[in-house]
Structure formats: structure tokens, C-alpha cells
Amino acid sequence: MSQTATEPAVARTGRKTTARKYPWYVIQPVERDRVRRFLEAFAAILRYTNYKPLLDQYVRSSAKCSRCTATCPVYEATGDPRDIPCNRSALLLDVYRRHFTISGWMKAKLTGDPGLTEATIDEMARSFYRCTACKRCLLECPMGIDHGLLTHLGRWILGELRIVPKGLEIATIEQLHGESGNTSAILPHALVDTLEFLEEEIEEMFGIPIKYPVDRMDREYAFFPAVSDFLMEPETLMGNLVTIYAAGDNDRWTIGTGYYDGINYGLFYSDHVLERVVKKVVAEAARLRAKKILIGECGHASRSAKEFVPVFGGEQARPVVNIMEYTWEKLEEGKLDLDPDIVTEPVTYHDPCNIARSGWILEKPREILKSFCRNFVEMIPNRTENYCCGGGGGTVSVDEIHDFRMSVAGRKKAEQMRATGAKYVVAPCANCKKQLRELIEYHELDMQCVGLHDLILKAIRIPGAKPPEARAEG
Amino acid sequence: MTETLDFVRGPLFLMTFGFLVLGLARHVFLRTFAVVRALRRTPCRDVPWGRVARKTAGWFLPVRHVLRGAPLMSMASIVFHVTILVVPVFLAQHVFLWHRGLGLSWPALAAGAADFLTLTALGTGVFLFLFRMVDRTARHMSRFSDYFLLAAVILPFASGYFALHPEGSPLPYETMLLIHVLSGELTFLLLPTTKLAHVVLFLFDRASTDIFWRFVPGAGDRVAEALRGSPKGAEAS
Ligand code: SF4
Ligand code: SF4
Q1: How close B1 gets to chain A, by Cα (Å)?
Q2: What is the tens place of the pLDDT at every residue in B129-160?
Q3: Which end of chain A is more exposed for a tag (fewer CB within 10 A), N or C?
Q4: Residue A2 pLDDT
């Protein structure tokens, strides 16, 4: 996620072979026999997964009715026919129809259609990374076609040819094969140093010592934030700690030094990576004998755990909780005391696609915010119909397409944010935070992007600790 | 002519209609089988059936969605779908045929209503066709088959209308009737074999999106294993 953190991995994985063939860099792209290899990968995936019946349905459903064009922020911004969701998906569906169905094969015999070409592969590489997999288009497709899922599948097949943006692949290589075992290349001793540093900060702010529980066994929760939070979001992590502490649960959770990364880029481009990363999370929770997996403020980390721990976790699978769900519960129980006079500026909330589109987490963060932010404004539209931040589907980690994220994919979001007139936009997601901050700078918006727990950190009252007003002055 | 018409209305009708029924039944069977199979491969089986059913039902008459994207086209599309389903089933002349063939009977549309609905179907159908040609976005998405299928569906309605109103018909009654029956039979053939199959596949649209994303444990390893013959590299990611 963070550039600085991933730099060392670049060197290790061979800068020499990095190529800029697409709008983004690729590490060691396969050059020869790509058509054959693409079809082989496609065939293998169809054989071992559940995608085949999905494609069978979609090739016969895609009505080309154009309704999705009114919902896709990318097409809304460019008006380029290649960005029409149904056209993008047709790239893959056509290959499926032509090479994997009898009628397609017969039709090709009659018309002399050569089938998949090098040019189509390049077009897919370009196109599948112009979709943020936000699934907004699914809302209005009468045929229920999930372009986000097709984008994911297309990227997986491309991934088997090593056509993956460098920004995603180096992080994954470090996570699966590197010494640190996580996407930001943070070694365990560096993690412990960071936590100690945060504890010192907290002590300075609150006047009392509060410690992160590290490697404690048999706790209720094992905690996995987006690992980049350790570098980029100190306030979110401090907010997490003081919330849990104030709720009286500091002896009920732990961070494990065996593995501490919630990020899972597999969600963006490969089921294979997805499975292996989920297994790392599950294994660490099992090592710690924790009862539940607690995910930090991160949309895709939450979704990849919530949806895929039950799938890939096997015997060791355990329930997944997002930290906002936890905090909401404690607020309901009356265990949190948040000062309503601290955050007085207008606050708005950005729904991360990965937790909102499916309707999973919508009201809880709003209820938390409204409990202490007097001036809460909604973006329109919101909740399940929200606009993607413009950096979804892993594109936020691809620095080369910064312009695309700012002026195309994120344009709608920027307009939405500006319209609220808010001073704070709360984005409980590591991806969204990075993208929204860049949008704020690029579009010169007068606001600040923060995490939900960053605001809690400001407003929380802990008995025996320095009160919020005193902290604000200090 | 009479002989041809008799053949087309008799044996050919039975054959194509049989093809239609069996073809659509095949889709339902294959889809159901695919759902069962997919769920057996994954541990993630808690399909929210209620929600899937509600969403599917909601799209049966998607008025709620009309204003949210391509409103004119969506409205026309809804009206088109309703009328092309109602007219063939409830037209008095067809009800009579159903009764003769199957011994079943149901209320028929009054002649005036039938005419109105047929003309509505034709009007919206032609509008959808023109929309595809004229609207910039729709034109960029449309292929030959999209136009062809729409035209194929419109044809029986146009010919049927003229068969019932010979006074305005450009062709003699018998020829018109022949075209009507033949084009109807053509749609019977097209329904199970083309995108028109959405008439039954529609029932599975939302269920498919909800079920077939369910991942299969170990699939990634098996794919990697199968591809190992290819040059090294894919391994790392
Ligand atoms: S998933 Fe999002 S970005 Fe991709 S096509 Fe759909 S609306 Fe557009
Ligand atoms: S709304 Fe659905 S069927 Fe219509 S064009 Fe878009 S993807 Fe295709």
C-alpha cells in the first residue's frame, strides 16, 4: 500500500525485468505464447472453480440494454464505449463463448473467427484495471450481471500470465514469500517498535499508560488491521486501542506478531492469492487461540475475511468482526463516553464499497458518528448506492494510474464530497483513505479525510485520563 | 397454399412448440443442476434464498428502477415485455386454438383491447429498435444479434395484426397468416437457443450472481498445478 514500504521488494524481485507495457508496470510479463497460455489458464480455472455456470448464465443474459451505463462512475466520466460495463465484460464473455461453448465453436467454424488474439489480451489488461470492481452497476442491471466479479475473474486469468500491476504483485510476493510476510514489509520488531511509539503518544495525550496487548493467548479477538495503518494511520490505531480500553476489553484482544496484515490483494486479482492470504490470517488466529478475528478499519480486508474465512478457513475458521461493529456494540452497551462538544465541524461518511454495497455495514458507523458529531451530513447517494472512492479493486495501489483515479474514477466522489461542505470525511478503509486524500489534494477540497476511530480518539472520555478539551489544547 | 398452411399450422407447429417446451425445460434442469453442483463444491452454502427471491420478484416488474437509468428505454422495455407476453396468451383467436388443442380455456381479451395491446407492443418494439440505432451508448453496445432478435420478436405481432385486419394489409390474408405462423414458430426455435432464453433464465439471474461466486477451497492450487507445465512464473503470484 505504501510506496516507501514496498520499495525494498522492488529491488528484490528484479527491477531489470519490469516493463511498462500497459498504463502500469508489470514484473516479468510473459511474452511468448500468450494466447495459448491464456486459454489454458482459463480452461483450468473453469475446471476447478464455480465460474463456468456463472459464465453460462451471463453469456445468455447480457441484454446490452445500456442501463448500467447510468451507474458506472468510470463511464459517466469518460463516455468512452470501451468503458461501458457490459462491453468490458463482453471481452471475457466472447472468449468464453468462442472457445468454451459448442455453439461458439460452430459459429467460429462458419465465420472463420480466429478467436482470442494478442490484441484482445492487451485490451483486457487495459480494461480490467479501469474497473474498480465497485459493483455499482449491479444495482441497475436487470439481468443481475456482476461486472465486478467478471473483472476479478479476468484479472485472475491475466494474473496467471503475470499481467498484474507491479504495485499489487510486489506487495503480494512480499506477503506470501518475503521475510516480513506482509504487504508493507514491516518486520515483527518494527511492529513492536511502532506499537511502543504509539503507546508513548497515547500516554502523552491521555496522561495514563495504555498498552497494546501483543501475542496474548486465548483472547476473544485477534486483531488484523490493514498493515499499512501501522505506517500511515497512527490515529486510527490509537483510536482502536483507547476504544477497546475504555470499553474495559483491553484484556480481551491481542495483536499477534506471527501475522498482522488484514490486506488481501487476492480479492482484487486472484482466488489463489486470496486463499493463501486468508489462510495466513486464520492460522495466526488459531495460533493465538483467539475466538474471533477482528478486522480494523478497512473495507477490503473486512470483506475478504468476512466472506472468505468461512470458505478457506476449514476447521480453523472463526467468526469475523469489523472494528466498527465492535465499537457500535460497546456504544450501545453504554461503555463508551464520547464528548459531543469536540467535533463540531460538519462530518460526512464515505461508504466503502466492500462493506456497504452488500448492505453489511451501513448504519453502525453512522450511529456512532451521530452520537457525538453534532453536524453530520450525508453524501448523496449513499449506503448501498454510494459512489466508489475511485481507487477500488486495488487500483489505489497502482501509482502509475493516479491521473485516471483522480479525474475519471474518482471524479464523482470528489463532486459528492464537495457538495457536502463537510470538514471531515470519515472513510473507514485504508484504500479509500489514501484515494480520498489524493482526491482532496487534486480537486482542492477544503476538508480532511480521517478514520472513524480518529474522531473517537479526539472525543473519548476515559475516567482518570486527561479530558478531551485538555487534550485538544495540548 | 392451403396445404402449406395446414402443414405449418399442424405438424410444424407441434414440432416447434415441442422444441420450445423441451428447450426451456432443459435450461431449467441444467441451471438447477449447476446450482446444486456449485454448492456441493464450496463450504459456503448459506444462500440468502429469501433475499434472492425478493430481488428476482422485484425485477419482474421493475418500475422502481425505471428512473434510475435510461428511463425512456426502460419504460418502453417494460411495456414491451408485458404486452408481448399478454397478447399471444390472451388473444381470443389464440385462446380458441388453445382450447381446441389442449382442451384448456381461459378468458380472452376483448378485440379492442387486443388491438390496442398489439399496437403498443409494435410501437414499443420499434422504439427499442430505433433506440439501439440512435442512442450513442446503446449503438456502441449492440451487435447484429441484438437487432435481429428484436426484429424476430416483432415480426409475429406485425403479421398477426395484419392477419386480423386484412383491410389494411399489404399482402393477401393467407400469405399474412403464413408469415404470422412461421415467424411465431421461428421465435419458438430462437427462444431456447439464443439470448431470448432469458424468458426462463431470468429466474436464475440473481441466484447465479449470488451462488456462483462462491469459491472452491483448493481451486487456486489445482489451477496452479494444472498450469505448471507452462514456463515458470505464474507460481509467484
Ligand atoms: S464495478 Fe464499478 S467501475 Fe466496474 S463497471 Fe461496475 S460500476 Fe463501473
Ligand atoms: S445493465 Fe446489465 S444487461 Fe444491461 S447493458 Fe448493462 S450489464 Fe448488460
Answers
A1: 34
A2: 999 999 999 999 999 999 999 999 999 999 99
A3: C
A4: 39
User: For ligand 1, atom 7, which residue shows the shortest CA distance?
Assistant: A72
For residues A392-403, average pLDDT: 95
CA angle A289/A294/A297 to nearest 5° reads 155
In the predicted model, is pLDDT for residue A305 greater than 60? yes
pTM comes to 0.94
Searching chain A, which residue's CA lies closest to the CA of residue B27? A57
A419: left (phi over 0), alpha (psi -120 to 50) or beta: alpha
pLDDT at residue B128 greater than cutoff 80: yes
Q: Check if A267 has its Cβ closer than 6 Å to any atom of ligand 2.
A: no
Kindly indicate the confidence band of residue B236, based on its pLDDT and cuts at 50, 70 and 90.
very low
Residue of A nearest to B150 (CA): A63
ipTM above 0.90, yes or no: yes
User: What residues have CB less than 8 Å from B105, skipping those under 6 apart?
Assistant: B95, B98, B99
Q: Grid coordinates standing for B112?
A: 379492442
Q: Would you call A45 an interface residue with chain B, using a CB distance cutoff of 8 Å?
A: yes
Integer Cα distance of A28 and A37 in angstroms: 15
Residue A261 in contact with residue A183, Cβ under 8 Å?
A: yes
Q: What is the pLDDT of residue B229?
A: 64
| pLDDT score of A215 more than 70 | yes
8 Å CB contact between A376 and A407: no
Confidence of residue A21 (pLDDT cuts 50, 70, 90): confident
Report DSSP state, residue A255.
B
Contact A282, A316 (CB under 8 A): yes
**HEC assignment per residue over A123-175:** HHHHHHCCCCCCCCHHHHCCCCCCHHHHHHHHHHHHHCCCCCEHHHHHHHHHH
Residues 6 or more apart in contact with residue B144 via CB below 8 angstroms: none
Average pLDDT of the segment spanning A137-161: 96
The domain defined by A9-164 folds into: Fumarate Reductase Iron-sulfur Protein; Chain B, domain 2 (1.10.1060)
Q: What is the pLDDT of residue B235?
A: 44
- Residue range(s) occupied by CATH 1.10.1060 in chain A: 9-164
Which residue among B31, B70, B137 sits closest to A84, beta carbon to beta carbon?
Answer: B137
Using DSSP, state whether B108 is helix, strand or coil.
Answer: coil
Domain covering A188-332: architecture: 3-Layer(aba) Sandwich (3.40)
Nearest CA to ligand 1 atom 4: A131
Residue range A411-425, pLDDT digits in tens? 999 999 999 999 999
**Sheet of A376-377, strands arranged across:** A376-377, A347-349, A424-426, A448-450
Residue A1's pLDDT band, with cuts at 50, 70 and 90, is very low
Q: All 3 cell numbers of residue B31?
A: 441451471
Q: Which CATH number is correct for A347-473, 3.40.50, 3.30.70, 3.30.1340, 1.10.1760?
A: 3.40.50
At the second CATH level, the architecture of B2-236 is Up-down Bundle (1.20)
